[in-house]
């Protein structure tokens, strides 16, 4: 991840905001309301150092996908840092730039730094960053969304758009099997040791075996595509 962060802390009496640990003024924030809601699609980078995270937000047909990518430390035999993924469900964005989901809500804004540079951003009112106090806001700055930098492998499209049966019918059973399992592999699923998929994905430089179960990480599109691929295998 390559995140940036704005933190916005408020109380009942005074407001103070932070960007990468630097305090900013309320006057540096403005509402961001583009002509088309699709302009909000992108990667939003939060935090710095070990508190880095990203929210990837995009539109696929009538579906809005919002997925948080962060990490945590796990200590068993050795201390290791593992990736974590949070899917936001029932996302809605209104004409005023308000952002809501089942898990988090906020507003799209712009931030102007002391040099006059303007950043498009998303303010989250109840952030997923655990150390931030309940009264705090967290603001992530927007960058271009590049699916190939998020969804690795030979079939990244299986994670960001619903596939069509006709395009899959041209593929062999082996290709379909790899495509389906690649969805799990991107989340670090641990395959059966020395099995066909384990041997295949361990040869991929992007693959890292981390989790015994990744079902909770799958987004709405991936769940749809897994079922479709299974029906054709």
UniProtKB/TrEMBL annotation:
Domain YARHG: from-to ranges: 151-233
Coiled coil: none
Domain of life: Bacteria
InterPro entries given in the database record: YARHG_dom, YARHG_sf
One Pfam family, short name: YARHG
Protein name stated in the entry: YARHG domain-containing protein
Native source organism of the sequence: Nonlabens xylanidelens
């Amino acid at each position: 991840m390559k995140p940036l962060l704005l933190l916005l802390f408020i109380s009942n009496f005074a407001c103070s905001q932070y960007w990468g640990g630097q305090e900013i003024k309320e006057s540096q924030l403005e509402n961001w309301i583009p002509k088309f809601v699709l302009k909000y699609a992108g990667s939003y980078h939060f935090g710095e150092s070990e508190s880095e995270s990203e929210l990837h937000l995009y539109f696929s047909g009538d579906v809005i996908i919002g997925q948080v990518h962060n990490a945590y430390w796990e200590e068993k035999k050795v201390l290791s840092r593992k990736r974590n993924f949070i899917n936001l469900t029932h996302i809605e964005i209104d004409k005023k730039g308000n952002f809501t989901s089942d898990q988090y809500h906020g507003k799209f804004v712009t931030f102007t730094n002391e040099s006059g540079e303007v950043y498009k951003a998303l303010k989250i009112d109840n952030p997923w960053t655990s150390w931030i106090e309940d009264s705090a806001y967290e603001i992530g700055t927007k960058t271009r969304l590049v699916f190939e930098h998020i969804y690795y492998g030979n079939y990244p499209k299986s994670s960001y758009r619903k596939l069509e049966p006709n395009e899959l019918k041209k593929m062999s059973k082996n290709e379909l099997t790899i495509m389906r399992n690649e969805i799990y592999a991107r989340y670090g699923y641990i395959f059966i040791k020395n099995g066909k998929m384990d041997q295949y994905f361990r040869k991929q430089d992007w693959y890292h075996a981390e989790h015994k179960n990744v079902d909770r990480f799958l987004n709405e599109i991936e769940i749809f595509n897994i079922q479709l691929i299974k029906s054709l295998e």
